[in-house]
Amino acid sequence: MQGFPTQTQDVKIVFMSFVILIGVGAMMLMLPFAHRGELTIIDALFTSTSAVCVTGLIVKDTPVDFTTFGHVIILSLIQIGGLGYMTAVTFLAIMRRKRLTYRDRLILKESLNHPGMAGIYRFLKIVFASIIIIEVIGALILTLRFWADMPFTHALWFGFFHSVSAFNNAGFSLFSDNLMRYQGDFIINLTIPVLVILGGLGYLVLLELYNFRRKSITRLSTHTKIVLWASGIMIIAGMAIILSLEWNNPTSFGNMDIMHKITAAWFASVNYRTAGFNTIDFSTFNDSDLFFGTVFMITGGSPGGTAGGIKTTVLALSIIGVWFTLRGQNNPHIFHRSLVPYQINKAYAVIFVASFYILLSTVILNESEHLHFVRTLFETCSAFGTVGVSTGNGGVLSYSALFSDVGKLNIIFLMLMGRVGVFAFTIVIVGKAAQTRIKYAEGRVII
Prior knowledge:
- By secondary structure, this protein is mainly α.
- It has helices at about 5-30, 40-50, 60-65, 70-85, 85-95, 100-110, 120-145, 150-165, 185-200, 205-215, 220-245, 260-275, 285-300, 310-325, 340-370, 375-385, 405-420, 420-430; strands at about 335, 335-340.
- Strands 1-2 form a two-stranded antiparallel sheet.
């Protein structure tokens, strides 16, 4: 079958597209007119990886240490990285009316997490149209809000930058304090989370919701229902945990009024899982709250979206599988639809492998950097989930700024792994096992 790539080849191409984009982005940030002051190659790589993998962890103060040209580079990396380099290149090829080979379509399917080959062209065009519409609307709302604080030209750029950064779940900000100055602002606390949620749901879900509203389809798929329910439950659960653990904490929520507490918890809960924006200093949170936050960050967003992590569907499938196993039932189902056992087993595998990578990286960082364990774990999970929230370095930078070059490289690998996916990253590193038709006799194991 010459000319037809295997899934392993597709995964490697997508992975290498991210690596190449990160390398190009780092070289462009190293240009003398892209940054101010000294910028080491490791910090350039870190910033480029954080942008391409739409994370938001920073070891350089974005508005201070980079010029406007550097900001344009970072925003371009966020936009291309959020969609996927191969997807962007394919779309440009379609616009030039270039015919795509079967191999190109397979790679595009892998990059977009599309379930099949049917309708891939139409789906890609709708994805781009949706991105433009959502980001433009977000930019207009944010521009009008920022206009009250700065000249219109600055407000327009700030509005556009933060809209793109929010929808792509990146968390990069042109304010040194991120969005802490807008802690109680209704427009910012509504617009940014809504953009983050829309980007994290996944393009398949957005398209299906649009068709359902137009009555083009009569019912939502099981995938969309799981994504919506899981996302909603995790946002509410995150708010409840934050409020319960921080309600009387004098350094975080203790001195706020009730509405202010709810608004801050809402913003933090949304950004816990997918984006790195913050309106409150996470270094003021209790260790117990930071620990619970790692669970939300590891989960991340949903398949086919701009967020990383193990995905909401993986967590949902694993919980469903555990529930039916504990009840002694062999046919797990949800929403009157049966679930394939292989998918549940794959969900278990993703969680196991992800946990292994995270724990290994945390132990390595803890032993090499000798810093606060819970905060190191929090930073590790933030990198893997491509979230970007951080307890900080005591200033405006992320906790990663305290790490050595080796520690920063560890975080870079975690961000890349979280963006391309646990299985994809593992396939690239160790390869995929050959298929076999051999089936051995059953063995009995006592549990």
